[in-house]
Amino acid sequence: MPDKGSRGKALEKNEPGRSRRTGMERRMTSSHPSSHKARIDTAQEPPASGAAICGPSTCGPRGMARRQAILTAARRLFIEKGFEKTTLSDIIAVAGGSRATLYEHFGDKEGLFRAIMEEDNAMILSGLAPAQADERVTPEAGLTAFALHLVKALLNEETTATVRILIAEGDRVPDIAEAFFRIGPESAIGRLADYLRRLSDRGDLRIDDPAAAAQAFLGMVTGNLVIRRLILPQSAPAIPDLDRYVRHAVRLFLNGARVPKTTRD
């Protein structure tokens, strides 16, 4: 009877190049039933990037705690070493757990970075709606609240670190870079455009193109501040200065969009 070693050699002989298959090839064949079985049996084959099946091991309290530990470790290492130079072994050494656990939650290193980016964007977008939902809030107060939350979130140290990684590694991970714009800046522009459209519909503002106006406004309140923070990370503006800057930008914007009193009367 052949021993385990000879059986392994026979398998390798029957499947040339099996050990050299790339993650992309594995993902392309993942729809075949046998490939699902192989991935479960080996526990070393990662699922598709970012594809985690929600179950007790991933979505329960312990699973979520493990997930957050991996995210925290990966974020720190990506900042310290860069995305390209950070290995999964580095992340596991800091976070604990196993490679199989990391694969269950994130799929691979790109999926892990995507999760960090989504976490940052969720934090940024979470505070952009409340003031806009109340029709009693004036346009000036609503836009100021929107802009202050957005600017403070974008100037957050972890957020700017993520953006720096995207700038440095974007050509290597173009799908993630595109996803960043789709779920980050484009989502913020969309939310602001919806708000401006409502203000225009009820007669508070006169705006022909809400999406273009939203882009212009966000450029006014974030552009210089974010660029300065990215290039000079130790040079964040003080909160009173930030508040003054945002309120000034809001007044400039509204003076160009506000409906004249004679028109409203």
From TrEMBL:
Every HTH tetR-type domain range: 64-124
Superkingdom assignment: Bacteria
InterPro entries for the chain: Homeodomain-like_sf (IPR009057), HTH-type_TetR-like_transc_reg (IPR050109), HTH_TetR (IPR001647), Tet_transcr_reg_TetR-rel_C_sf (IPR036271), TetR_C_Proteobacteria (IPR039536)
Biased amino acid composition, Basic and acidic residues: 1-28
Region Disordered, annotated ranges: 1-55
DNA-binding region: 87-106
Name of one Pfam family that matches: TetR_C_7
Any one Gene Ontology molecular-function term assigned to this protein's record: transcription cis-regulatory region binding
The UniProt record lists the keyword Transcription: yes
Swiss-Prot/TrEMBL keywords: DNA-binding, Transcription, Transcription regulation
PANTHER family according to UniProt: HTH-TYPE TRANSCRIPTIONAL DUAL REGULATOR CECR, HTH-TYPE TRANSCRIPTIONAL REGULATOR RUTR
Name listed for the protein in its UniProt record: Transcriptional regulator, TetR family
UniProt source species: Azospirillum oryzae
Lineage: Bacteria, Pseudomonadati, Pseudomonadota, Alphaproteobacteria, Rhodospirillales
